[in-house]
Structures are given as C-alpha cells and as structure tokens.
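Worked example

This section walks through a single chain of length 404. The input is the sequence exactly as stored; nothing has been trimmed or padded.
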Amino acid sequence: MTVFLKKLGPGLLFAGAAIGVSHLVQSTKAGADYGLGLIWALILVNIFKYPFFQFGPRYALATGESLLSGYKKLGKGILICYYTLTFATMFTIQTAVTIVTAGLAHSLFGNILTIEMWTVVILTLCVIMLIVGRYNLLDQLIKIIIIVLTISTLVSVTMALFKTDIPLSYVQIFPKEAIDIGFLIAFMGWMPAPLDISVWHSLWAVEKNNNDNKYNLKTGLFDFNIGYFATIFLGLCFVFLGYLVMFNQNETFSSNGGLFANQLIDMYTSSLGQWAYIIIGIAAFTTMFSTTLTTLDASPRAMQKTSQLLFNKSFSKGYLFWILLLVFGTIVIFFVFASEMGLLIKIATILSFITAPFYAVINYMLICSKHTPEKWRPSTLMHVLSWLGILFLLGFSIWYITQL
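Given that input, the structure is written out below as tokens.
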C-alpha cells in the first residue's frame, strides 16, 4: 500500500483541489433541490472535460515543462490572457473556498473562535505548511486527507442509504427556468473543477518529476486517472447525500458561510442521527481544507511561473510574494463579503464555466502542436473526445449567455 501511494502525487493534489465547493456545496445542493435529476450533467461534464485535464500531466511529463511554458510557445498573448484571467479570479476563488472551510471549523469546534478568526487561522496554518514544507509536505499530506475524506464520505452515504425509506428515482431533468439554468451552469463550472487546474496539475507534475525520477508519463497518467475518477465518484456520493438527506425538506441553504456550515451538518445529523455529526463533520472539513490548501499553493505557483515567463526574469521570492498577496486579498474580500458566500461561489463557478472553452482550446492546440513529441500526442479517440468537449463547453457557454 505504501509503495502504491508513493507513486501517486499530483493526481491526488488535483483531487484535493477539485473536491471542494463543487462537491460539498454544489453537488449536495443538486441532490437536495433536483434529486438525482442532474446526474446526467455531472457525468457529461466530467467526460467532456477529461481530455483537457489529462493534457496537463501528459504535456508536462512528455516535455519536462509545464503548460505555462507551452502557452508561451503558442504565443505570448495566450500567456497574457492566462495571467489576466488568473489574477481576476484567484482572489474570489480562494475566498469562496476559505469561507466554507472557516464556517465548518466554527461549526465543528464551537465558539472557540469567530468565523473571521478561523479564516485568519486557517490561512496562516496553510501558509506556514506550504512555505516550510513546500511541495513534499503537500504531497504527503494530501494522501492522508484524501483517504480520510473517501472513508468518511463512503460511511456517510452507506448509513444514509440504510436509514432512508425514500424510493430512489433516477428520472433526469433539464432545467428551464432562469434560476435553474444559472445553477446548472454553476454546477458544471466547477465539476469536477475549473479547467485552469490543468495548469496547476502540470506544475505539480514537473515538481514531482524533479523529486522522483521514477515518476514518468505512464505513472503520471495512472496517477491522474486515480484522482480524476475519485472526484467523479465522490461527486456522485455528495449528490446522493443531498438527495437522501435533504430532498423535499423545503430547506434553503444560507448564503452566510457560518450559517451554511451549521445548516449542512445539522440537516445530516437530524436525518441520520447524532452519530453522523462527527463523520459528516470530518468529511466536510477535510473536503474544504484540502481545497483551501491546494488552491493556496497552486495560484501563487502559477503566477510566479507566469511572471518569470512573461518578464524573462527569475523571481527568487516570487512564490512568497504571491501567496502573501493572495492571503491578504482573501482576508479583505472575506471581511467585506462574508455574508455573501452564495454570491461569491456563483460568480466564481460561472466565470469558470464561461472561460472553460479558452483553456480547452489552448490545451488541445498545445498537445497537438510540434511542441509535444509526436508519440505522446492524443490518440484518435482523444481527438474525437476533445472536439466534442470543445463543442459542448462552447455551446453551453453561448447558450447560457443568451439566456441572461
């Protein structure tokens, strides 16, 4: 088991970053509001996003460089677009995930600290871990977190299935009302994750390869598949939990981070029993803490590398600068918009879906270009899946914009 886990790394970091708001908040809400009727959306978006996420580790391990270096080879304008999009969204994304994490900590550990103080404590703890331990600590810690998360979620789903007397209905629905369409797009925007995480994955893959010469393309793709299919499976688990525990309960989730966390855990506990409090609490908190930690590492890592490529200059303290800037920006936004968690999540997820075609197209262009060794370019099946994926993401984005 230890040898098996040692082979893994970036794929589990991908899972840690992906299994967060999209699962705990969006998937639970999908199950609570629509039953199992949006499983089609969850499965389709995961299928059509698959190649573009896979191209991250594929390109990194085939060339020894991240997608960001590849973007520069396609044209400096593409790298500037990435830089601008990331800077415009990273503070909102970090705030959205940190608000939920702080709310859960406050709910689990009582009134030891206010939610505002929990936010500062969690961000400070993550910064210390990342600066002191860097990639190696992150690599080791995420394996523990994913194992705890998977076990606690599986126990919760199993007990919910035994506890409920609701007959399972797999009738699929397609939202028609404006509010439901907005939720559908937000749901797919971060399911399993925003496409720019492919860039983060490529950076982690390069780092893993530098630390472990046995981490090659074959191992990297296996690692990616483990992480990717774990996100799909756990996404389905949270949809089922939302359905089994909250469907037809006439409950509306609060937009306040602390109230949302209390609501979520209380609803599970009241439905499943007091025993569920600690298990659901562990599942929920590890879900969000892993996302907070990995996103706090990835955005500064990506911005440091992009800055180096754009300005042809090495910034020795670049990572430290960006991580401190991200923490400061997150705290400022948190104190201003703490009561608007729902709005922040909606903005972040919709932006992620609308920008998805950009990342899909450039990742596909890069993996098919002369910059990727020919033997590592996509198979015919992956070409077809990529074309369908681009059409799917572009079509839904245009459709959503026309509905505004």
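What to look for: The chain has 15 helices and no strands.
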